[in-house]
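haha ok so turns out i had the wrong file open the whole time. this is the CORRECT one, sorry everyone. sequence first:
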Amino acid sequence: MQVNDSGSELQGYSSDQLLEYTPEVALQTEPVFERLRGVVPEIEWLVHAPYVGAINVLKTKLNAVILAHNYQTPEIFHGVADITGDSLALARQAAKTDADVIVLCGVHFMAETAKLLSPQKTVLIPDLEAGCSLASSIAAADVRLLRERYPGVPVVTYVNTSAAVKAESDICCTSANAVEVVESLGVDRVIFLPDEFLGRYVASQTSVEIILWKGHCEVHERFTADDVRHYKEQFKDIEVLAHPECPPDVLAEVDFVGSTAGMIEHLHGSNSKRVVMITECSMSDNVAVEFPQIEFVRPCNLCPHMKRISLPKILRSLRTMNHQIEIDTAVAKRARRAVQRMIEIGQSVTD
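then structure:
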């Protein structure tokens, strides 16, 4: 690891493979750093910049597009990404491009979703080990067993799942449109997978009976109601925003509940001067670039899977065309149908 003068490590960098920061690199990347100056220390930028420059040159040569989830670090999100946002929005936007190669800077299920919607494109993920506690909390066999236990009850599956699980589902949803998707089925009850807390939030917003699965996001489940009360006691003027993957007692204490995209949309209409976003820490760093007038109090719960993606790994992925996402044809066909059923509902779909 490269260690800066403050003693913090720059994740993903090997000291014997660092690219050189040159005057040419400085000139090439100066506009990017001007945007990031408030969230990335200059001493760290000296390490990031050569990779930002090399990646941006190589992706053009390869006709590649880089997708970065809201939870990626700022040097990726603002430095090399062509499309940013939540997982489904990334996949949908990538499908509309004429790129030959998609590099997904996120976690594995997101790369699979991108492949589902862009089956003819090469989809890469820089680190195969970038997983997700929600996606790993349920398998296709579990869905089949639930169908046996609740015959005839439709299965609504959160997009934070593997393609194999999506393939066993009737329809997918995001945190933003989960209530709409559930109610669109016109039934009295549904099986909602796999996030228990998101499912409980949906149940509080609809009369449809929700059959839950005990899957949790390891980032969001760590937040507590005491955390929220502490923020409000410490900062009397703070507005607290939370993702619905948080526990119910957390959501009961906050000022706004919404998806990652929903939080950003909310801030566009907010007059708040100080905000805390109860979600993955890097989101605050990325949003702070867009809202310099707001002071963001960082909750600093990091997703270890998202943080497996780094600039050196992105560059290596482009150079080697690894790791390519492949999905069994039969599984992909069924999973794609579940995603497309959601899209056909017609409302903007963001998680």
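The longest strand covers residues 64-69.
again sry for the mixup
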